Amino acid sequence: MRILLAEDHRPLADWLSLTFERSNYSVDCVYDGDGADHLLLTQQYDLVVLDISLPKLSGNEVVRRLRARAGKVPVLMLTANNSIEGRVASLDLGADDYLGKPFSVKELEARMRALLRRSEQHPSPYWQCGSLCYDSNTRTFSIDSAMLALPPREHSVLETLMLKSGKTVSKKMIADALFAMSESASSEAIEVYIHRLRKKLAQSDVAIVTLRGLGYILKQGSALD
């Protein structure tokens, strides 16, 4: 999953970026509202974590512009001004949630997971496809209750397919979820990750099926490549 983090306090921004990356999120980080607004115009994100007090454009103005363009990505606001008036203003402009500073990173990540579930219209933290289960709280996979250990890239690819289980997922959608702005998106790399995942799913009743010219689909049954 790909996250946009906009936070002007650089030590906090760098620490949050590293924390999110360790949790298998792909993160783009900017330090002002103008940069956040530009990326929201040009890139696709699953979630935005946005500080209210940003230079150039405030977080509230970034949200206002995003919603005026009919952007639907969930937005979680961060602020040191945890007043009722501040929360109401941000929520009325289109923010989905609000967290005051200082905060617990565990609570922040729990709120992020809740927003991601809501955006997928999937209230349960568990996704199931055949014998493959994904727990979005721990962000772990299991097959018949046995943990499926995956490197970060493979984890991100399978997560993207799992959240769209039964639906076609294009290579661009996978690349958007997998690669941050600082990384080069490689179609060949995605094919390598798909190949490795197929090997790891070979003994299960779940397969990644290639749809020529369209992308991939995760489904119960045998793979047809």
Automatic annotation (TrEMBL):
Keyword GTP-binding (UniProt): no
InterPro entries linked to this entry: CheY-like_superfamily, OmpR/PhoB-type_DNA-bd, Sig_transdc_resp-reg_receiver, WalR-like, WH-like_DNA-bd_sf
Residues covered by the Response regulatory domain: 2-116
Entry-linked PANTHER family: REGULATOR OF RPOS, TRANSCRIPTIONAL REGULATORY PROTEIN TCTD
Positions where 4-aspartylphosphate occurs in the chain: D51
Superkingdom assignment: Bacteria
Annotated keywords: DNA-binding, Phosphoprotein, Transcription, Transcription regulation
CDD domains tied to this protein: REC_OmpR_PmrA-like (cd17624), trans_reg_C (cd00383)
DNA-binding positions: 124-220
Domain annotation OmpR/PhoB-type: ranges: 124-220
Name this polypeptide is given: Response regulator
Record keyword Transcription regulation present: yes
